[in-house]
DNA sequence: CATAATTTGTTGCGCTTGACGGCAAATCAG
DNA sequence: CTGATTTGCCGTCAAGCGCAACAAATTATG
């Protein structure tokens, strides 16, 4: 009905939210820091914090021993037993984990599969694992929801997976399937977007308000963008598909695919091929590249960097971010000659737009998607801790 | 010091702001509609509205005669005598106008110049015109600030014009110059960004939360983007420079400039050339194109559409907007064969991303930049009507 | 033309909730 | 052990919104 914005109740809820978000994002914080951070009154923070504690959403612990003058301030921490179940279905496995409100992974299980899982199978797998965990690791946990990171386009309204090419899912109502299998509210989003969110909140993009994130995987390039501190989803949730872009290619002989898209030209498969591997994880590929002194390898790296630089330059012109975060094989590609990439990007965009632009490698490891997906499940709670 | 967010005072200020913004954007509104729109209580709206009236920011008029049952509701309208001075320096002229809080242009004057104006000259021109107006048209006006729309890159922190190539301004502190010449607070921004803001708030993009705006001018292509209902400025304010992008060009012989950018390939000058004109305003160019049955003209239009479609497809992949607004000669280019352009864009981006995508022509005429610039001047007032 | 129905302004009251100030508590410096 | 400093705790205060009852102004109905 009414969105309580503008009323007193709304203020209260927003203040609770603000505290909980701080505890969630910044980790354990003293009450004193919370008052400083929120600008609220000491007494107000005290009452809000104890309200959150009563709700079981935060723990108030004894003060940390600090070496400063004055009365020690109790530490407020997001309650670790408030948890989200997160799911990442892939071609060869389904990873399921539980993530605490303190953003730490509690349990994690990778279920290898010998065939492509269907949406219904995925839901059943989640329900099964959850039922087992509920009697063991998560006996005392309070599970607030499920977040799914899906390699495909997900409609944000209803979580419908419109198309996940590698899983061969089309218009899959996986959100509803998971909700009815588990009895928990679920959220679904594109995996790369969730990676962007994770890197923004907990990784290389901490505290940065405008960033572009690109991840290079085995099957293509995905991404996400943060504008003004908020993850961009677009109208329907399909934003961030950098891999499908067609960047300019200045040298005609740099092109491999006629009318190809970015991920046709800048691809992990081509890197593997040129170093003579068929399958390899990222460290192995990076090592192989570093070890190789071959001209062909150097050529291919330079070619891919040139095309990537144009794509990044385009993004910089349009979005004027202060940071570009590269993950997966794009991190390997960038790390190989970071200065060259930075220079190429700067050369391909408006001079002022690249001022103060930083290009960094993603920090979070393989848990990135899980942490991002947990944000989906925590979103409601964080936005309004009183919304049951 | 503290940003009063989260306190009661903050609620009050936000509510005042909400009402004023509604009156500003939606035009005159009944108090009844305001209560519905804000979700606040009748009595609250009454008190807020009369507070705004006391501040001289809105007028409360007698009810409009409506044919509906029930007691008529007084109409609240943004006060037209609360005004902004707006300035648009160009190569051949400086346009100065006064815009009311009701978003209507009160006075407008185009001062032709026979040389490139300097920032200091611009400031003097503004101060001179303003002084004259203050004794005539604007005798009873309450001028709250100045907004400048500059064709160049403007740093958002301090309004420094980093580079305006056609005006030949470099690192021009035009904001400070105007502020000290007029004694009014001033804001400066890129002209195309302000065009995007105007089209978003009052033009083809009304009510649309995610849109991309591209304007084709004589000297290039500028643009702006709205994400989640907010104009994107980027870290330093340089966002929206679509004209400097390098989109993929599938057919090699479509390229005119080696390693050229979008505005090298998709250009008004090339259109003029192919129809055999040297100078023409937009209607003249459009008429010439429509009149010409020549193959060369059709070829050039199709070529430019192809390249534009790739650039737009890239933007759609990344931003998933629900609307693309085209202005200037890009509107002419699009109108020539709208279906072809839509199809080409859809073919160049992820299928789901173009679902429900609309491509429209800009609605606001030559006053677009002025109305956008007024938003700069009104921003403070609208965000916090009590902030003196 | 009179009465009913409907919508909305007006008024006074109450309640929620954050700010404020005084005091106590807990630490460190010397 | 004393003073300084920081912070928690508690009682009081007040700003401002919701609410409900009533009044006012219009249309619908017979």
Task: For the structure shown, list the relevant keywords.
388 residues; alpha/beta; Nucleotidyltransferase, domain 5; 3 domains; five-stranded mixed beta sheet; 13 helices; 16 strands; globular; DNA-binding; ROK family transcriptional regulator (chains A, B); Tscrpt_reg_IclR_N (chains A, B); ROK (chains A, B); ATPase_NBD (chains A, B)
CATH topology of the largest domain in chain A: Nucleotidyltransferase, domain 5
From the alpha-carbon coordinates, what is the Rg of chain A to the nearest angstrom? Answer: 23 Å
Name the helix and strand elements of chain A from N-terminus to C-terminus, one letter apiece: HEHHEEEEEHEEEEHEHEEEHHHHEHHEH
Unreliably modeled segments of chain A: none
Number of domains of chain A: 3
Structural class of chain A: alpha/beta
CATH superfamily of the largest domain in chain A: ATPase, nucleotide binding domain
What does the largest sheet of chain A look like? 5 strands, mixed
Question: What helical percentage do the residues of chain A reach?
Answer: 40-55%
Specify the overall morphology of chain A.
Answer: globular
Number of DSSP-assigned strands of chain A = 16
Into which percentage range does the β-strand content of chain A fall?
15-25%
In CATH's first tier, which class of the largest domain in chain A applies?
A: Alpha Beta
Distance between the termini of chain A: 16 Å
Assign the CATH architecture of the largest domain in chain A.
2-Layer Sandwich
Record the strand order, biggest sheet of chain A: 6-5-4-7-11
Instruction: Round the mean pLDDT of chain A to the nearest integer and report it.
Output: 95
Hey, which two chains have the biggest interface?
Answer: A-B, 65 and 64 residues
Write down the oligomeric state.
Answer: homodimer
Number of contiguous helices of chain A: 13
């Amino acid at each position: 009905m009414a969105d309580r914005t503008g009323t007193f109740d709304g203020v209260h809820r927003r203040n609770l939210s603000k505290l909980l978000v701080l505890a969630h994002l910044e980790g354990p914080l003293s009450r004193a820091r919370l008052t400083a951070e929120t600008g609220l009154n000491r007494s107000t923070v005290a009452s809000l914090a104890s309200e959150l504690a009563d709700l079981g959403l935060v723990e108030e612990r004894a003060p940390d021993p600090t070496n400063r003058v004055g009365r020690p301030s109790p530490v407020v921490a997001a309650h670790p037993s408030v948890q989200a179940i997160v799911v990442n279905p892939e071609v060869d496995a389904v990873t399921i984990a539980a993530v605490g409100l303190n953003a730490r992974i509690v349990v994690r299980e990778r279920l290898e599969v010998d065939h492509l899982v269907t949406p219904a199978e995925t839901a059943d797998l989640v329900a099964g694992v959850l039922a087992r965990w509920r009697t063991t690791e998560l006996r005392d946990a309070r599970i607030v929801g499920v977040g799914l990171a899906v390699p495909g386009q997900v409609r944000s309204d209803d979580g419908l997976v419109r198309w996940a090419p590698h899983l061969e899912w089309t218009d899959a109502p996986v959100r509803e399937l998971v909700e009815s299998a588990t009895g928990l509210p679920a959220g679904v989003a594109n995996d790369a977007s969730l990676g962007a969110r994770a890197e923004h909140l907990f990784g290389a993009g901490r505290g940065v308000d405008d960033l572009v994130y690109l991840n290079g995987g085995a099957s293509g390039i995905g991404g996400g963008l943060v504008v003004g501190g908020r993850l961009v989803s677009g109208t329907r949730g399909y934003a961030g598909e950098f891999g499908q872009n067609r960047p300019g290619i200045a040298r005609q002989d740099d092109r491999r695919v006629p009318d190809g898209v970015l991920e046709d030209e800048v691809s992990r498969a081509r890197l593997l091929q040129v170093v003579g591997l068929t399958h390899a994880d990222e460290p192995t590929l990076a090592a192989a590249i570093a070890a190789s002194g071959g001209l062909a390898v150097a050529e291919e790296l330079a070619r891919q960097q040139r095309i990537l630089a144009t794509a990044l330059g385009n993004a910089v012109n349009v979005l004027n971010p202060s940071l570009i975060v590269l993950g997966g094989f794009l991190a390997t590609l960038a790390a190989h000659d970071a200065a060259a990439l930075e220079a190429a990007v700067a050369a391909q965009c408006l001079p002022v737009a690249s001022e103060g632009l930083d290009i960094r490698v993603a920090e979070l490891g393989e848990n990135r998607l899980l942490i991002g997906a947990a944000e989906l499940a925590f979103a409601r709670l964080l936005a309004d801790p009183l919304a049951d």
